[in-house]
Amino acid sequence: MHARRSAFTPGRFGLYAFLLVAAAFFLLPLYVMLVTSFKPMEEIRLGNLFALPVKVTLEPWATAWFSVCTGLQCEGIRGGFFNSLAIVIPSTVLSILVGALNGYALSFWRPRGVEWLFGLLLLGAFVPYQVIMFPLVRAFAAMSIFGTLPGIVLIHTLFGMPVMTLLFRNYYASVPAELFKAARIDGGGFWRIFIQLMLPMSLPIIVVATIMQVTAIWNDFILGLVFAGREHLPMTVQLNNVINTTTGERLYNVNMAATMLTSLVPLLVYLVSGRWFVRGIAAGAVKG
Predict the structure, then answer these.
(1) Shortest CA distance to 57 belongs to which of 39, 72, 74?
(2) d(Cα 24, Cα 79) in Å, to the nearest integer?
(3) What is the dihedral of CA 41, 243, 250, 33, to 10 degrees?
(4) C-alpha to C-alpha distance for 170 and 288, rounded to whole angstroms
(5) What local confidence, expressed as pLDDT, does residue 286 receive?
(6) Distance (Å, whole) CA 254 – CA 77
(7) DSSP, residue by residue, 90-125
(8) What is the DSSP string of 125-192?
(9) What is the DSSP letter of 231?
(10) pTM of the model
(11) Which sign does the torsion angle of CA 195, 198, 204, 208 carry?
(12) Which tens digits make up the pLDDT trace of 201-210?
């Protein structure tokens, strides 16, 4: 009869200690930002960075949302919030639809050396934006969509397409071929199998793709700064203007509140859909 193993071995204790230290290290900036955003400036001037607020105030959050200056205008960052929504929603939907269609078509295409070809496609997804920025600006200007909402949506769709295509291609390649053959025998064509069979089966990978695209597009700065135009600047660009626009005393509590508001959407996406993200990855998102 085997003796019962102790739950508190030295190795397990060291593992928990390491995880706690790592969690504290990564959560510390979030804690500082959060407590600072609820402090009045009188408490911030005392220099107690890690102290909890004695007099909790929501005024910095209201100022950040309604009246903080984002350059020449002092209307808060709420305009950037709605601009980011207008950019993220169509960009995410279009990139996922095109990526799913491309992945579905490529899952049937398996010539010799296809893995090398898909490797090159993945490599293309990591080409720095700065390398092709100038040709893209010239091309978009020639098409009269530079500095417009359709322009910034199109550029995010284009940059998201390689990764989305590979995600869906790998997912569809893991589906048994007998399923396609049965659908063919039942009279299903290319589009009918894609719409009525593959898309309903793609919910786990669609969740993964949505999380990836929403997070990437919402956190984007350089593409929004260059291609969105003054009327459609995303929230990240307006946050940069808030941080760098100072008239008199720098309001750290307002800056922290504006930063928290800007990161709220990706944070909620991860908290709400985290378990579906893991489930989607486990269902075949990264299988080659």
Answers:
(1) 39
(2) 34
(3) 30
(4) 6
(5) 46
(6) 11
(7) HHHHHHHHHHHHHHHHHTT---TTHHHHHHHHHHHT
(8) TTS-HHHHHHHHHHHHHHTT-TTSHHHHHHHHHHHHHHHHHHHHHHHHHTS-HHHHHHHHHTT--HHH
(9) G
(10) 0.84
(11) negative
(12) 888 889 889 9
Taking the C-alpha atoms of residue 242 and residue 235, their distance in angstroms, rounded to an integer, is: 10
* Per-residue model confidence as pLDDT tens digits over 53-76: 999 999 999 999 998 888 778 888
Distance CA 163, CA 82 (A): 26
Backbone angles phi, psi at 201, to 5 degrees: -80, -5
Helix (H) or strand (E) holding 63: helix 59-66
Which tokens sit at 245? 């626009």
- Rounded to whole angstroms, how far apart are CA atoms 8 and 62? 48
Structure tokens at 183: 């659908």
Residue whose C-alpha is closest to residue 65's, from 76, 57, 79: 76
Whole-number Å distance between alpha carbons of 141 and 17: 55
Q: How far is CA 25 from CA 29, 31, 94, 157, in A?
A: 8, 10, 37, 35
Burial profile 197-222: b = 16 or more Cβ within 10 angstroms, e = fewer? bbeeebebbbbbbbbbbbbbbbbbee
Where on the phi/psi map is residue 245: left (φ > 0), alpha (ψ -120 to 50), or beta? beta
Is residue 166 a contact partner of residue 119, using CB atoms and an 8 Å limit? no
